[in-house]
Amino acid sequence: MWGFGVVRIVTDSPADIPPVLAKELGIVVIPLYVRFGSEVYRDGVDLTPDEFYRKLVTNRSLPVTSTPAPGEIAQVYDTLAEETEEIVSIHVSSKLSATYEVALQAREQMKKKCRVELVDSMSGAMGEGLVVIAAAKEARKGTGLEQVANLAREAALKSHVYMCFDTLEFLRRGGRIGRAQALLGSVLKVNPIIGVKDGETHPYGRERSRARAIDRVFDFVKSLPSIGELAVEHASTPDEAEALADRLGGIFPRERIYMSRVAPAVGVHVGPHVIAVSALEGQ
Amino acid sequence: MYTGRELREMFTAATSWLEKSVPDINALNVFPVPDGDCGTNMLLTLRSTVEEAYRAPDSDASEVAQAMARGALMGARGNSGVILSQIFRGLAEELGGKGSFGGREFAAGLTQGAAVAYKALSHPVEGTILTVARDAAVAATTASAQTESLCHIVDAAVSAAKESVANTPSLLPVLRQAGVVDAGGQGLCVVLEGVLQYLRGEVEQMQYRQPQVMSSGLPNVSRIVQLSAEREEPYGYCTEFVVEGRRKLDRDKISSRLADKGQCLIVVGDEKMVHIHIHTFDPGKVLQYGCSLGILHEIKIQNMDDQYRGFAEMVESQSPPASVATVAVVSGDGLTQVFQSLGVSAVVQGGQTMNPSTRELLEAVESVAQDKVILLPNNKNIVPTARQLQGLTRKKVRVIPTETVPQGVAALLAFNYDADLKENVSIMKQASSAVKTIEVTRAVRSAVIGKVKIGHKQAIGFVDGKLASVGEAPEEVLLRVLQGLEMKQSELITIYYGKGAHRSEAEKVVGLIKRDYPNVEVELIYGGQPHYHYIASVE
């Protein structure tokens, strides 16, 4: 389906690329590991989001995530090297996960001859996903390795993700709260809005109710100078995501909004009730 | 059962695990002195511990444990390092004479270690690595009653240590104020976690994971403010060395001799060798005394004031990115906490009938680290005073004319970390005007307002400053005012009950409102404000 001369795109499961879309665009997704006690799952492979969020609510012990070993990623590159000689591998922010570092090591361990360009998306969830999709679309046009990688790097600077939280408990206990620590510990019940900025967890604000937090995210998106791509995703509230997408349909073609699901590897850190909008600036 | 080799490997794994989180742990370091070297010190202690372990015959657990205790004592650095060294001493005491060990012995070793660590300090402080060591030991002991598996026992210790670390700010006010957990406790937690990963056979995978730094769930106030405030007293020199005694060493005697030479004194070790750690203004005297006891090794003296300056710079680079500070006028301990938990940079006590002076407001404005300040007066009578400040300081001061507490809360919630002064003023103004305020108090004298007659001490209710209801009990008035409001557009009522009100009475009102308006969420919060029995917001 993809000719040998076509640049192929590799990413990781925290990019939240919907499986159907990954297949359509020929994106290879490397699963991170999610571990509940001694049970280990490959994100999205052995563990679907539905199963994961059910477990997250019922299990007593908090899950943790880990990256694949360099050998595993090297194997993904080597396998793909049978179909292409150029790969762009785009990963979740190196400030939030070691995946990018591991991919760097993996590139050294490859056996097959194939050029691999690595890109730090400096984001996560569909904030990363939109960068991956943009790169995949460009690659399909037959664009060369450097150009695709540069396009991804530029997209990474224009990608935004805004996530509405019910609780920061997961982010806190998972050790990824970063600068959003400022939003912890409110005496009043609040719904924080947190995203990733410059690769790090970033506090965007908070509201007194979920509905208003979603309103504020809508306003954030509306105030962007331009919108090239838009995505809505949720952890376990599909109807809410549909309603939000319909609303965003007022400022961006509804049929072009990607609908996705927060992957378990991200869910470990954000909890079972988030809803997020990601936007890529551009035409 | 485990051998000496495995004991050594466990802590070798723990060392590489700790190494990864050294920068994070350094950044947490605020107690006893914010010098930002806690993680480094613990790592150096652990390295010395493991190096010594490699010198012992590795088949014998007892020999390795003794070697580790010796290495820890010699190489211990800083408060947390010295306390960590006591855990190895505890293990060594417990494993003495044993060729191999299991879960029970390990749990007993942790318990013994925590006990000797407490004893080594003249004034043990809770909410530090000591507390975490004890909590972990207790959990390990409890688990060891049910299982012999070392892996399960350490697992229990790690879980308990994590909870304990998260809880440190509620035990130690200086941590709470800085919005961090205890650095040494976090370090110990990471060490135990490293041991656990070894036991699970996950040493390989460890290189692809990152230790998690716990953060506290408690309200915190701005760290920048805390750290940049001028300190009046210097910290002096952190002085550490090991004494190899000419004669038998008496730890208690050494402790009492050094007690008045400085702060944070820790003396650990045995009759042959002791490790001394003290923060002093005169390291010379302490060393001189050390020389009178025997030969000194591993001498280390550091100027903590230099360290502090470096640390303050590092913390600033990691704090929330706000370039604009907020200062609020609030009265009542509960309301103060509400504002602090929402990240206000400084609070000035004041409100109805107790307006703060211009000087008090000015001091608060000058105390914050930022040059741009937004003021929330939260009272009609304080707005004019607040407006005068712009002429009195070099800082840029803007006033959001909030006339009530709920308006102030709404404004603060709308604060945008990414926005500049001008934009924040605009969004905060807008947010504060979108909230409706209800205030219930008792009349201080009889009066006639409009056509309504108010008797002395009658309860009166206001909506956005306008008289709305008069009655006998404040609860009755609150309920009547709320029932009289148009609720179609509202989704949330927040009631702050004051000093003169009781939670149980307020809860009854909440029950009745929920019955009348099932779609409206009601939150009841302790405000502790004087004068007003209730302040409520409808939004």
Explain what the structure shows.
- The complex is a heterodimer of chains A (283) and B (539).
- Chain A is α/β, with parallel strands linked by helices.
- Chain A has two domains: 8-157, Rossmann fold (3-Layer(aba) Sandwich), CATH 3.40.50.10170; 159-280, Hypothetical Protein Tm841, Chain: A,domain 3.
- Chain A has helices at residues 19-25, 49-58, 70-80, 99-109, 125-140, 145-157, 169-173, 210-222, 238-248, 264-270; strands at 8-12, 27-30, 33-36, 39-42, 64-66, 86-91, 115-120, 159-164, 191-197, 200-207, 229-234, 258-261, 275-280.
- Chain A has a six-stranded mixed β-sheet, sandwiched between helices. A four-stranded parallel β-sheet of chain A has the order 2-1-6-7, sandwiched between helices. Chain A has a three-stranded antiparallel β-sheet with strand order 4-3-5, covered by helices on one side.
- In chain A, helix 4 links the parallel strand 6 and strand 7.
- The radius of gyration of chain A is 18 Å and the shape is globular.
- With 539 residues, chain B is an alpha/beta fold.
- In chain B, a hairpin with a 2-residue loop joins strand 12 (459-463) and strand 13.
- In chain B, helix 6 (129-144) packs antiparallel against helix 7 and helix 7 packs antiparallel against helix 9.
- Mean pLDDT of chain B is 87; it is low at 218-232.
- Chain B is built from 21 helices and 16 strands.
- Chain B has helices spanning 4-28, 38-53, 61-75, 78-95, 103-120, 129-144, 150-171, 173-178, 183-199, 203-206, 223-228, 251-258, 283-293, 304-318, 333-341, 358-367, 383-388, 405-413, 421-433, 474-483, 503-516; strands at 237-245, 262-269, 273-280, 294-303, 324-330, 346-349, 372-376, 396-399, 436-442, 447-449, 452-454, 459-463, 466-471, 492-497, 521-526, 534-538.
- The longest helix of chain B is centred in the first third of the chain and has 25 residues, at 4-28.
- Helix content of chain B is 50%, strand content 18%.
- Chain B has three domains: 4-209, DhaL domain (Serine Threonine Protein Phosphatase 5, Tetratricopeptide repeat), CATH 1.25.40.340; 320-433, 3-Layer(aba) Sandwich (Rossmann fold); 436-538, Hypothetical Protein Tm841, Chain: A,domain 3 (2-Layer Sandwich).
- Chain B is elongated, with a radius of gyration of 29 Å.
- In chain B, the strands form four sheets. Chain B has a six-stranded mixed β-sheet with strand order 13-12-9-16-14-15. A four-stranded antiparallel β-sheet of chain B has the order 2-3-1-4, sandwiched between helices. Chain B has a four-stranded parallel β-sheet with strand order 6-5-7-8, with helices on both faces.
- Chain B starts with a helix and ends with a strand.
- Chains A and B meet through helix 7 and strand 10 of A and helix 7, helix 15 and strand 15 of B.
